[in-house]
Amino acid sequence: MLSYRHSFHAGNHADVVKHTVQSLIIESLKEKEKPFLYLDTHSGAGRYYLGSEHAEKTGEFLAGIARVWQRDDVPAELEPYLSAVSAYNKGGNLKYYPGSPLIARHLLREQDKLHLTELHPTDFPLLRQEFAKDPRATAVRGNGYQQLKSQLPPTSRRGFILIDPPYEMKTDYQAVVDGIQEGYKRFATGVYALWYPVVLRQQVKRMIQALKDTGIRNILQIELAVQPDSDRRGMTASGMIVINPPWKLEQQMSVALPWLHRVLVPEGIGHTSINWIAPE
């Protein structure tokens, strides 16, 4: 199945949380001069036009980035993320949403590397074209989980791995755990960030238990819900599970997450949570 297109969902509440966490991790890694690898297992097209038929059909960005964009009370923790969004929207009009590869491209330094993977036959050419002139970047059409075997450990011995599958198939909830386990065997000091949706809470609970069962330690969970859990169709919440998080991340998100909840969910429903699945 390759029916999922992120262009329908770009800039929604889940993207805002995911890319805030992504940006903070990158900024932390930049505090040391030594280069690092950014590895993106499910890169998508890279750039999304918010006036497209897909984006306008769902309008999800209106309850996501559009609520955060150009506010004058933004916490400092969101500034790296919003600087990346601004870089692709000259003149102050919100026309494009940068996916995780473009956010990384904006924030990474000359000495850092990007390894981007996408399998979708329509999205991959767009991704490849987007990065054709960036000497830091390699774009590959293939299975993102296999990159966790072939690309790790990086020569720099420093790395950030973002795992962001569409969860089109229920098997993805176990595939992400298997992928992390494979990567961790090769590169135990890397930072791994796994995005997950909450459609059925039991699926997420099983995935978290499977992660615990790997014996991997130092795992932080960050979640924002815009609706109470439900057994009906649709995503009510999303989160990031981070292995080997930078030491500041928990504190940074304890500031950013309540603010995002207040702005993205003005009705006050849902919840936020930050907790350790497995302490160090």
TrEMBL record:
Record key words, sorted: Methyltransferase, RNA-binding, rRNA processing, S-adenosyl-L-methionine, Transferase
Protein name: Ribosomal RNA large subunit methyltransferase J
Assembly: Monomer.
Assigned protein family: Belongs to the RlmJ family.
Gene name for this UniProt entry: rlmJ
BP terms from Gene Ontology: rRNA base methylation
Annotated SUPFAM superfamilies: S-adenosyl-L-methionine-dependent methyltransferases (SSF53335)
Protein purpose: Specifically methylates the adenine in position 2030 of 23S rRNA.
Residues involved in S-adenosyl-L-methionine binding: 19, 42, 100, 118, 143-144, 164
Enzyme type, top EC level: transferase
Annotated positions for site Interaction with substrate rRNA: 4
Catalysed reactions, as listed in the record: adenosine(2030) in 23S rRNA + S-adenosyl-L-methionine = N(6)-methyladenosine(2030) in 23S rRNA + S-adenosyl-L-homocysteine + H(+)
Enzyme Commission code(s) on record: 2.1.1.266
InterPro entries in the cross-refs: RlmJ, SAM-dependent_MTases_sf
